[in-house]
Amino acid sequence: MDTTPPLTTVARESPSPEFALTVVTVCRNALADLKPTVESVLAQKAQGTISIEHVVVDGASTDGTAAWLEEQRAAGNIERYVSEPDAGIYDAMNKGINLARGAVLAFLNAGDTYRADADLAACVQPIVEGCRVATAATALICGGILDGQFFRPRYNVRYLAEPCSHQAFFTTTALYRELGGYDTSYHCAADTDLIYRMCSACECPRTVDAVVVDFQAGGFSANCHENYRDEYLELLWRNREQAMELCRQDKDYRDEFLAMLCDHCFNLQHWQQARGKQIPRQIENLSTICLKARELAKNATAKVALRYMGAVYLPRLARLEPLPAGTKWKLLLCQFACAPARNNPYRKEMSYPRITPLNFVLYWIGRGIHSLKSKLHK
Hints:
The chain is an alpha/beta fold and about 375 residues long. The protein contains 14 helices and nine strands.
């Protein structure tokens, strides 16, 4: 018997707000992480600069979360909570959108905290006053390989990568509802998808020059690598026309876009083999984008590189055919053809390793050593 609860539909109507800001926290069996999150929101309420509602959506935890939340509600530390089964993290977030009574909405997951010196009013007031539809501030990454680094808004990579920290993003509750909330067909990229849709429907959020959130690495998104690249390739396909238009308008964006295409193509074969899964549809979509992007390239070498990837390399990869000899060399040349500038911002922001001449030479040295050892053992 299927016991999965039905997906939550986001209500389109937006009643008159009772608070300036609603902070929604979703959690499941994370009581230890939830406590500092609630304390950080309480500290913001104590500042009194804006009225804040804190709503917690718990996925029927079995670690005592529901009893603790009732204590917090009775003490006035949180305004509302629900504790019931849901169909995943984005379904829980959609419940939070329905419960929100604030003019502005923000999500702060269990374990993440607002900094003691965070000025949430600077993020919320421009939206409440009608100056902007959305704002985004900086998050400090805590833990993991990026510990101590700042995640700043970067709209120059929208439709290519996550443009800002979800925890430091603020927009109107009405817009969340107008757009229908989070697309629950995504496993881990629905937050990025929603920000993309907001950028397309309205405008890029206004950047607030402040660090407002300590973001704990290793959470939900960090643990869904199996779906990550599938979904980001799907997002690229859905937003390809917007990305192409930006390429025509902005040279820097075009350079980053072409560099990103090369990196995706370069890593697809290894990723497909490492994950033990076939992804022909996504590869075919990327092939189409490469051939379209060829029209945008401004130098002949980049045009040839994109044609090779779109018409030769990716189609064979999708059909699981043998790849041409010297493929690694050709893909390396494609990378340098499409991302020649040392100051290309995208090159500095790559989250997965780039192929460089040094590690390419080391690869062949390793192949030679392995071959020599094999001969010696015969």
